[in-house]
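Design a sequence for this backbone.
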């Protein structure tokens, strides 16, 4: 195995040796459950490493590379995988200094066993080496769970998903691949087709969802269906954080308008703010952990959105007001011992100012790891430096990779574990931690805190 990643001091390396081979818990991500049901080899290097990875193609697009030339928006049968990979290889040097470079190097040279250094000149050779590796039985998706040392993987699934793949997986993988309930399409009026999604929820559950009480019952029914297949969490993509508890008559009126798609922007904000609190209350009742991912302005490039759709690299971090945004929710359920809230932000300025003090007070709250633009070596350092003094280590949610790039999961966890060990060795050097403290905390941050935060230990 090549030496890939942050070079560590002797003290940090010693800590890293104790955690680098721990099983990987991946409690939040975006892998397709269909992969594990079919268990077929990944088709080609481009479809695996480039086309689905917005970290990769957004950088190439910023350099003037056409998304179409990268296979984006092109039917798989019409793509030229070798040409796509060659185009990527021509710009391989442009990823220097980015976490994507580190993840891809780890994936190529460690996970896939590629022996040829990637460059524009060697693109065809590397393409062939990857293709050969992907044909190995141990890298088929289901088998790769063992190969990659992944003990648990959670997918993210819409509330209206039929869960047919998870029905198969629940009996065939001993609970190693589980769903996560993501109800954005039925809760947030700003989502396309929101009114039709409410109607569809009624069709699936047999409830008259035009009535607010039955709408809530239908959501609870879907949550129960997810939980029966192993789900331990919900996930909410919150564009603008706002919560408000509305009187019964008012929420009934707003729900009637939601069902006809006639809410104005102000009403939609209040409706969604109320629904987030309803979801928190349901979490108290059914025990599902509530995740909030906040601070992404989605699809800021209107031309790309129109031509290629959402999730095409144009999502940009923006500022978040956590204190006021969560106030109504926390003051309604935040003291309940059955409630657990995991907070993720793209607004790094809130780490020390808001989130760490909040997690250091509210018993329900755990801080999610650095997310998306910030799960880099420097992002990990900034996160730990800013949150630990107010939140401590036990109020953190460990790490999750939050990725669509399945074979990059070990690379992402390795980067986190190296970053954790570098942080802990710095704490030792400054006299903040004794060695035995650091040796205790390293595996917690690497694996154990995530399992606890997501209630994966049978809690």
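Sequence:
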């Amino acid at each position: 195995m090549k030496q890939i990643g942050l070079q560590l001091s002797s003290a940090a390396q010693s800590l890293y040796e104790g955690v680098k081979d721990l099983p990987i818990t991946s409690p939040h991500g975006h892998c397709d459950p269909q992969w594990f049901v079919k268990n077929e080899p990944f088709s080609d290097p481009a479809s695996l490493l480039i086309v689905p990875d917005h970290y990769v193609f957004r950088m190439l697009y910023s350099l003037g590379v056409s998304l179409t030339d990268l296979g984006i928006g092109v039917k798989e049968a019409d793509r030229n995988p070798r040409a796509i990979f060659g185009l990527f290889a021509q710009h391989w040097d442009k990823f220097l200094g980015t976490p994507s470079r580190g993840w891809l190097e780890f994936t190529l040279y460690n996970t896939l066993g590629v022996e040829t250094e990637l460059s524009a000149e060697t693109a065809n050779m590397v393409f062939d080496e990857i293709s050969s590796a992907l044909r190995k039985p141990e890298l088929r998706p289901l088998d790769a769970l063992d190969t990659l040392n992944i003990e648990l993987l959670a997918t993210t699934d819409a509330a209206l998903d039929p869960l047919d793949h998870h029905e198969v997986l629940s009996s065939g993988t001993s609970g190693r691949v589980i769903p996560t309930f993501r109800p954005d399409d039925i809760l947030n009026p700003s989502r396309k087709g929101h009114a039709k999604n409410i109607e569809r929820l009624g069709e699936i559950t047999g409830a008259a969802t035009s009535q607010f009480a039955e709408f809530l019952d239908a959501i609870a029914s879907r949550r129960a269906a997810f939980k029966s297949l192993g789900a331990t969490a919900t996930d909410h993509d919150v564009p603008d954080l706002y919560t408000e508890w509305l009187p019964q008559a008012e929420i009934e009126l707003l729900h009637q308008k939601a069902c006809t798609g006639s809410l104005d922007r102000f009403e939609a904000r209040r409706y969604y703010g109320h629904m987030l609190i309803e979801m928190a209350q349901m979490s108290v009742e059914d025990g599902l952990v509530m995740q909030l991912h906040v601070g992404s302005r989605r699809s800021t490039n209107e031309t790309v959105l129109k031509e290629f759709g959402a999730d095409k690299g144009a999502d940009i971090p923006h500022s978040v007001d956590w204190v006021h945004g969560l106030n109504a929710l926390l003051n309604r359920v935040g003291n309940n011992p059955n409630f657990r809230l995991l907070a993720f932000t793209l607004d790094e300025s809130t780490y020390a100012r808001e989130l760490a003090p909040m997690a250091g007070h509210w018993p329900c709250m755990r801080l999610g790891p650095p997310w998306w633009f910030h799960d880099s070596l420097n992002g990990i350092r900034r996160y730990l430096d800013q949150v630990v003094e107010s939140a401590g280590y036990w109020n953190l949610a460990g790490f999750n990779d939050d990725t669509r790039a399945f074979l990059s999961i070990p690379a992402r966890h390795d980067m986190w574990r190296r970053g954790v060990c570098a942080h802990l060795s710095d704490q030792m050097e400054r006299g903040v931690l004794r060695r035995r403290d650091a040796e205790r905390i390293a595996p917690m941050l690497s694996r154990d805190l995530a399992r606890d935060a997501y209630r994966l230990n049978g809690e």
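The domain at 10-41+138-453 is CATH 3.20.20.140 (TIM Barrel).
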